[in-house]
Amino acid sequence: MGSPPTKSPSTLGWKVEDSAHLYQVDSWGGGYFGANAAGHVVVRPNQQADREIDLLEIVEGLKARDLTAPVVIRFSDVIAHRLKTINDAFARAIAENDYQNRYSAVFPIKVNQQRLVVEEVYRAGAAFGFGLEVGSKPELLVVLSMTEDCSDRVIICNGFKDDSYIETVILAAKLGRLIIPVVENFAELDLILKHSKKYGVRPTMGVRVKLAAEGAGRWRDSAGDKSKFGLFITEILEVMDVLKQHDMLDCLKLVHCHTGSQLQDIRRVEEAVTELSHVYAELKLMGAGLEYIDIGGGLGVDYDGSRSNYESSMNYTINEYARDVVHRIASVCRARNIPHPQIISESGRAIAAHHSVLVFNVLGSSALDQFRVDSQLEADCRDDSNIPQPVTDLLDAYRSVSERRLVECWHDALRAREQALQMFNLGYLSLKFRGLAERLYWATCARIRDLVRRLDNVPEELEDLESILSDIYFCNFSVFQSLPDSWAIGQVFPIMPIHRLEERPTRNAVLADITCDSDGKIDHFASRRDTKRTLELHALKAGEDYYLAAFLVGAYQETLGDLHNLFGDTHVVHIRLLEEGGWWIEETVKGDTALQVLSYMEYDTDELYPRLARDCERAVREQRLTVAESQKLKRFYEAELQGYAYLEPDMEG
């Protein structure tokens, strides 16, 4: 037998479990993600370790089918499991509190309006009687077509509504839909009365309450007195008077509130539900025909895995959320001796976020610690009497770096670099010495950083060295298209490599996308204590694809994405578990081609190629191009018009 293979330095003393701990997979993954012995990220759609899917295996399988990164991979079974998880949590809470009614979730399709996602949510929610929520006329049209023969599954209509919207809702009720328009203002109430009379329908309607309880987190201002949603209590009492005049108090079936989005603090949930319950009880005792209490959205997602009262996290579990909601509604109803209403929630983020993963490849990197000072360079500097003083000072700072003088050498390097730049801008320092100063400065920083890594207590002035010296990894995706919340509101998404987890990551990096916008980067990452400014990654290997993934991106990101730099939709695939084990591609949606995104911007795509072809022929006639060169350019142009809008690997290589 031969000797066992030796491990590379990057794998010595490092295990897959160390990577899982480093990237906090168990914390933010919620049981849906993990790592296998091969060092690959795995997806567990049913949270069962014996039925996991290797994410790299999927990516390589897609590449073999000419579907290259970036790609959004949706796991349909995760949606079904999320729905069951939420339903089971409320079922337990209902049993524990002896609650005398049921719970029903409705999925707000604004969270992810993609047809395949909405259809999967609606199909998987059938077992629990879950419904849908709409906030616009186009969304209403979609939902009406999907809810055929489903008269017992509620449709909640939020948002501002015009005459045709309300008329459609009333006709849908006559068609047999359990559809509830939620009154946001008096104009809507007048329209409901008008069309109900016109078509002889006693509608099932609701009213949204403007709660005094404030929201929390990024959307704290979307609740409370300044909220754009709902009516003040005084206005609701006026609604009651109008309905009483029309003998329609029994038509008011639902009270609704907006508690906010991504509520990270359970106390805000408790306050809002308690207030809404008292409003419900009072209106019920005043003669309203109330049967439903809609607590809105707000159920959070723990994006960073810290399980804390932080904007990208939540300090409660789904079970705690359900227990608090059911207990508080039950307590108020028992105290007022009124029947328990059916509980409705609009927890779209909690339903959809986990099921979607964005995978993208790294195209290259830029490193600031690449600069080295060898013995020859030092000797040349010693022998050159013309070296300007700031460059000499930088060389002295580099040579003097030691554990005892880290801060002092840091200060010396900063001061000397600043002086060198001033001299260059005044014309007293040549470009050659400017380059030498730059090399010495970054080499000094790297030397100080390497020693700082050995310290138990890092001096405060040197705490940012890792960020200062971080690499830039250039990634094949657009932040604006695929992760708009990261750019717009600083949302933290879990990001990590999907392979090489058996290796110790040796680089710290920020991620830059392929747009030409300086905001097209990600420089905040999930961490246990606070947001990290860099992400631990592996050194790139020549000729090998390095894949990263952003997780929990199923809520809002695809809907909010734009066409910045004309990077359109990525490829999307739907993956489903096989009963016998393994996985299969349920459906594929190819990403936008260059031709498609140009047509979105109203370019005359029929004329693009002919114009270039005519220009090529002129160049051939004027002998600026050969015929072969002309044909090559035309073939490239035509192929790229039909090709993926993102960068693709060289298939001939």
Could you explain how this protein is built, in words?
- With 653 residues, this protein is of the alpha/beta class.
- Among the domains are: 368-466, Methane Monooxygenase Hydroxylase, Chain G, domain 1, CATH 1.20.58.930; 605-641.
- Helices cover 41% and strands 15% of the residues.
- The chain contains 23 helices and 21 strands.
- Strands 4, 13, 14, 15, 16, 17, 18, 19, 20 and 21 form a 10-stranded mixed sheet that branches. The chain has an 8-stranded parallel barrel with strand order 5-6-7-8-9-10-11-12, surrounded by 7 helices. Strands 1-2-3 form a 3-stranded antiparallel sheet.
- Strand 5 (103-108), helix 5 and strand 6 (131-134) form a beta-alpha-beta unit.
- The longest helix is centred in the C-terminal third of the chain and has 22 residues, at 431-452.
- It starts with 15 loop residues before the first helix and ends in a 12-residue tail after the last helix.
- The model is unreliable at 1-6 (pLDDT under 50).
What's the total number of strands?
Answer: 21
User: Which consecutive residue ranges, at least 5 long each, have pLDDT under 50?
Assistant: 1-6
Q: What do the pLDDT scores average to?
A: 91
**Proper CATH architecture of the domain at 368-466:** Up-down Bundle
Distance between the termini: 37 Å
Helical element count? 23
Radius of gyration: 30 Å
CATH topology title of the domain at 368-466: Methane Monooxygenase Hydroxylase, Chain G, domain 1
Q: Quick one: biggest sheet? A: 10 strands, mixed
Globular, elongated, flat, extended or rod-shaped: what is the shape? globular
Tell me what portion of residues adopts beta-strand conformation. 5-15%
Fraction in helix? 40-55%
